[in-house]
Design a protein that fits this description.
By secondary structure, the chain is mostly helical. Helices cover 65% and strands 12% of the residues. Strands 1-3-2 form a three-stranded antiparallel beta sheet. The N and C termini lie far apart (57 Å).
Length: 101
């Protein structure tokens, strides 16, 4: 394996006691990215917190994949709006500082 920031899907599923098909379905919905290397499938470590949230939504809260997809899209939109808000607040702060000078 070339990249040490990859987690083998088989090992991830064993650790979390889930089926490999759940990870495949998340990939099919475009919610995660699977990397194939040397005839094996891997996940990037940066995706793990998101995947673990989706596992909890599905197995603990009984939310189906369509619901997870909708929730993920809404969370992405909220994050984008929060970033835009922070940008606008920073610009406003700079403008206000210039006005007081």
């Amino acid at each position: 394996m070339k990249n040490k920031n990859l987690i083998q899907i088989k090992q991830f599923c064993i650790y979390h006691e889930i089926e490999n098909t759940f990870i495949t379905e998340l990939h099919n919905y475009g919610l995660i990215h699977i990397i194939t290397e040397e005839n094996d499938e891997y996940l990037e470590t940066e995706q793990l917190p998101t995947i673990e949230k989706m596992i909890r939504m599905h197995y603990d809260l009984k939310i189906n994949l369509e619901g997870i997809d909708a929730i993920a899209n809404l969370l992405n939109k909220i994050e984008a709006l929060q970033q835009n808000l922070n940008t606008v607040q920073n610009k406003l702060r700079l403008y206000e500082e210039k006005q007081t000078e």
